[in-house]
């Protein structure tokens, strides 16, 4: 008789099975329909093939397409199987193609191929069709563990030399796993779905093809990377494609060009040239943030951009981050060697220098130092994208120096401020993620316990709906990440709040305790917007270029209907400017409807039309963006109306 093991199901029920029973067999034993619907297993929380034998007592969950609790896992399985199925389809269609790697990425997957002839988007229909045929065959996905030599011989025989290289790179102590989708084989860690028919045939789409170097190294051969997206249902795919269409319509790079907000050029890659209108928006946002920070008890400072490498060595950045730093060398007077500096990639070490000036006592804590800190980081040219990913940017940065006991209160204050700022800027929804201690870390477990508990307790004061990412904290402390959701459902990680037990130690920050001893403060790194550049990109796309009046680059245009109104229009425009509004006049010899259309499509919130009647009566015809028709009113009333609407949210009564 075979030995029995105990399997605990998600509802807590325990069942006995012979050792070696597979997840698939357990699913079928529970019910025939579960056996059919089963996609994969979770054994003690680890995602696994349904065919994997259970060798010991374990907790077991059976994943199905309807599984809400394991939705992300199900999506990743589908995307992963899509990668294999696409590679099989490509090799069936173009047998000379060599396969390399094909990982899952956000919303989909890619696969890198080596083929002399370029793939084009015209090939996608044929590949998709072949993929559907493979899916319809419902061929089983099977797996085996191979000896290293066998795997190498196999791939040498089939002339798949990239795979030989991949096998050779797998550490000696790791197993070599092979997967088959029907007859087609690939080297893979798994896990996978049970058969090809479990990939929804109507919920994937190939999106684009691009060049990519083998192993990301420009000395290697350029491969062809085909990207695809996949979901659990057709409706989700359609929603995603619709979102992409919407995103293209509101692309901040196009709006930035059309509204003359900013530009980028080759001579300064990833660094923004702000034009008057874009800079006006930037400054309104900066002024707003400054007021919010001051009101929340922060003190603003300013620290140097170019800082000697010695400080970066002391902070640890020179060791860990140098590849991303812009380095400068200068012949210092009377010096024998060049002095090496770096443009600051972050503000933190400089803030500790400010903190370290003058003895600090517990009475000085918490000390909140804020800086709109201009930073530079080298990003690869391929990763840069308009304002969203740049090399030169300004953080709404601040560091809170506090005691361990103050962490919870500071966290709660921060979340409060962040939520209020996001609401003011038009984002109602944001999600919080808590990342806890990683394996490799500094600081005692007692300090980590305390800090993690403090962060979590503060989050719980606001919401019980937050995510915990175990082990994903920085080596120097736990952190909170804040992701906001924009108007078309995209998520953007902007805010961050990180405890740091390391930098105060490295840079010698301390304070005098009530007992007269010296102690280390905890340093909290925090940002709400992240960077002004990226956040403005998000803002532009969120409102599709139609800024709320307080942020609009041009808040009102005074437009004439007849040239008799020119002088009056100029007077009114100036009076609006005197009231602090951003105003243009449009005296062109064009039809008023033409002017209205042009300024409306540029997102100007108010258009004040001036005809003969208005000149005589001292009135204006006001059109509000997004509203039908116009309203004639005395100029003073219009001024009051616009001025009120143009007030920043924190200054409203
Ligand atoms: Zn795989
Ligand atoms: Zn920092």
Describe this structure in words.
- This protein is an alpha+beta fold.
- The protein has 4 domains: about 5-65, Beta-grasp domain (Ubiquitin-like (UB roll), Roll), CATH 3.10.20; about 70-245, Threonyl-tRNA Synthetase, Chain A, domain 2 (2-Layer Sandwich), CATH 3.30.980.10; about 260-305 and about 345-540, Bira Bifunctional Protein, Domain 2 (BirA Bifunctional Protein, domain 2, 2-Layer Sandwich); about 555-650, Rossmann fold (3-Layer(aba) Sandwich).
- A hairpin with a 5-residue loop joins strand 1 and strand 2 (about 15-20).
- Helix 5 packs antiparallel against helix 6 and helix 13 packs parallel to helix 14.
- The radius of gyration is 30 Å and the shape is globular.
- The termini are far apart.
- The mean pLDDT is about 95.
- The structure holds zinc ion (2 copies).
- Keywords: Aminoacyl-tRNA synthetase, ATP-binding, Cytoplasm, Ligase, Metal-binding, Nucleotide-binding, Protein biosynthesis, RNA-binding, tRNA-binding, Zinc.
Number of strands: 33
Q: Mean pLDDT, rounded to whole units?
A: 95
Oligomer: single chain
- Give the strand content: 25-35%
Give the fraction of residues assigned to helices. Answer: 25-40%
Gyration radius, to the nearest Å? Answer: 30 Å
> What is the number of domains?
4
CATH class of the largest domain: Alpha Beta
Which regions are unreliable across 5 or more consecutive residues at pLDDT < 50? none
Distance linking N and C termini: 80 Å
């Amino acid at each position: 008789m075979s030995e029995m093991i105990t399997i605990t199901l998600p509802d807590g029920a325990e069942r006995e099975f012979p050792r070696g029973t597979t997840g698939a067999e357990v699913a079928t034993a529970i019910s025939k329909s579960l056996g059919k619907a089963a996609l994969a297993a979770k054994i003690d929380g680890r995602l696994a093939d349904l065919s994997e034998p259970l060798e010991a007592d374990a907790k077991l969950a059976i994943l199905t397409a309807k599984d809400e609790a394991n939705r992300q896992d199900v999506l990743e399985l589908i995307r992963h199987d899509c990668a294999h199925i696409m590679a099989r389809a490509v090799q069936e269609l173009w047998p000379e193609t060599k396969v390399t790697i094909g990982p899952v990425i956000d919303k989909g997957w890619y696969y890198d191929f080596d083929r002399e002839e370029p793939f084009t988007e015209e090939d996608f229909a044929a590949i998709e069709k072949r993929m559907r045929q493979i899916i319809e065959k419902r061929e089983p996905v099977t797996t085996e563990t191979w000896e290293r030599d066998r795997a190498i011989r196999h791939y040498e025989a089939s002339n798949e030399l990239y795979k030989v290289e991949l096998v050779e790179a797998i550490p000696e102590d790791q197993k070599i796993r092979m997967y088959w989708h029907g007859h087609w084989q690939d080297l893979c860690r798994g896990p996978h779905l049970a058969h090809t028919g479990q990939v929804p045939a109507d919920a994937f789409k190939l999106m684009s093809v691009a060049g990519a170097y083998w192993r990301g190294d420009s000395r290697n051969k350029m491969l062809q990377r085909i990207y695809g997206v996949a979901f659990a249902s057709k409706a989700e795919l359609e929603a995603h494609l619709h979102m992409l269409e919407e995103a293209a319509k509101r692309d901040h790079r196009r709006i930035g060009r059309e509204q003359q907000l900013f530009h980028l050029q080759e001579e300064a890659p990833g660094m923004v040239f702000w034009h008057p209108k874009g800079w006006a928006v930037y400054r309104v946002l900066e002024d707003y943030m400054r007021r919010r920070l001051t009101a929340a008890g922060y003190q603003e400072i300013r620290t140097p951009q170019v800082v000697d490498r010695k400080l970066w060595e002391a902070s640890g950045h020179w060791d860990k981050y140098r590849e991303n730093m812009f380095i400068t060398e200068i012949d210092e007077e009377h010096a024998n060697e060049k002095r090496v500096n770096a443009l600051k990639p972050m503000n933190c070490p400089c803030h500790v220098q400010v903190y370290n000036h003058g003895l600090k006592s517990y009475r000085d804590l918490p000390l909140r130092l804020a800086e709109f800190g201009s930073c530079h980081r080298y990003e690869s040219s391929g990763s840069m994208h308009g304002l969203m990913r740049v090399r030169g940017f300004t953080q709404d940065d601040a560091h809170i120096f506090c005691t361990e006991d103050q962490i919870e209160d500071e966290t709660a204050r921060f979340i409060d401020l962040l939520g209020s700022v996001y609401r003011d800027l038009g984002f109602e929804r944001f999600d919080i993620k808590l990342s806890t201690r990683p394996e490799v870390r500094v600081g005692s477990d007692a300090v980590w316990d305390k800090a993690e508990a403090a962060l979590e307790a503060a989050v719980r004061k606001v919401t019980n709906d937050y995510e915990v990412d175990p082990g994903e904290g920085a080596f120097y402390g736990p952190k909170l990440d804040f992701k906001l959701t924009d108007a078309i459902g995209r998520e953007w990680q902007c805010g961050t709040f990180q405890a740091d037990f390391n930098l105060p130690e490295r840079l010698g920050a301390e304070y005098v305790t009530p007992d007269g001893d010296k102690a280390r403060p905890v340093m909290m790194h925090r940002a709400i917007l992240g960077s002004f550049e990226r956040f403005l990109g998000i803002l532009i796309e969120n409102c599709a270029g139609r800024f709320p009046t307080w942020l609009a680059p041009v808040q009102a245009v005074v437009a004439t209907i007849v040239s008799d109104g020119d002088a009056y229009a100029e007077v009114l425009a100036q009076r609006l400017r005197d009231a602090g509004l951003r105003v243009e006049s449009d005296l062109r010899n064009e039809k008023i409807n033409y002017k209205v259309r042009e300024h409306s499509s540029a997102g100007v919130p108010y258009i004040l039309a001036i005809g003969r009647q208005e000149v005589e009566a001292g009135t204006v015809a006001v059109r509000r963006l997004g509203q039908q028709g116009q309203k004639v009113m005395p100029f003073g009333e219009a001024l009051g109306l616009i001025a009120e609407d143009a007030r920043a949210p924190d200054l409203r009564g």
